[in-house]
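Q: Given only this backbone (226 positions), what sequence would you predict?
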């Protein structure tokens, strides 16, 4: 494997988020060091002044306080210039869509003209474009490790409610050492024990914990308070 391939290998879940410094619409950042102790959604979009990206930024900005409430920060990226970013964000504030208007984007948007950061994170995928980043989402935890990776094609807008649900599920799993079942929402029952944790099948099935129930030896749940 040559040096360039090694440097540009896409980071994987469980690995440290590749570090970088960058100029943004909110000033310079040192990532992920500046966000230690917080969850971060690092996401890329193909280009400024494009329709799908505009709807995404309006939605992310509209939900920014919801993300802050769960200790989560937003960081955007595209391969456009800082001046293009600023002009686009000003125009977004003048738009009204889907009940949203006067939307001010206060989270940083990274200038990545040379595509240095985009290549570090595998956001440039030649099957889609050599000059635009795909719609990537990296969820980075408070220790700077990558916990979730999502990729969308250029034509498909992201579901921000699902991204928020992922953050909540990860936080629940970390806090209580559980797993979350399909379509889990806060308050739903969780799965115990998580894969690879201690405890035999017999112990799980014969547990006297009134908050735990099993459908079979391999599938046990914990009742959560609604």
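A: Predicted residues:
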């Amino acid at each position: 494997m040559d040096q360039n391939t090694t440097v540009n290998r896409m980071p994987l879940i469980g690995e440290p988020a590749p570090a970088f410094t960058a100029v943004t619409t909110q000033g310079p950042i040192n990532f992920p060091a500046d966000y230690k102790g917080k969850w971060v959604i690092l996401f890329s979009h193909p280009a400024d002044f494009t329709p799908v990206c505009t709807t995404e930024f309006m939605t992310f900005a509209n939900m920014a306080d919801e993300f802050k409430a769960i200790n989560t920060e937003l960081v955007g990226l595209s391969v456009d210039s800082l001046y293009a970013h600023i002009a686009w964000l000003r125009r977004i504030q003048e738009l009204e869509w889907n009940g949203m208007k006067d939307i001010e984007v206060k989270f940083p948007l990274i200038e990545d003209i040379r595509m240095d950061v985009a290549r570090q994170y595998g956001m440039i995928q030649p099957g889609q474009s050599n000059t635009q980043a795909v719609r990537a989402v990296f969820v980075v935890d408070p220790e700077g490790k990558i916990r979730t990776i999502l990729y969308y094609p250029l034509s498909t807008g992201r579901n921000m409610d699902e991204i928020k649900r992922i953050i909540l599920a990860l936080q629940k799993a970390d806090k209580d050492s559980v797993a979350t079942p399909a379509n889990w929402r806060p308050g739903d029952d969780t799965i115990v024990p998580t894969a690879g944790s201690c405890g035999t099948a017999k112990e799980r099935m014969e547990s006297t914990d009134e908050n735990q129930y099993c459908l079979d030896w391999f599938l046990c749940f914990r009742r959560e308070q609604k």
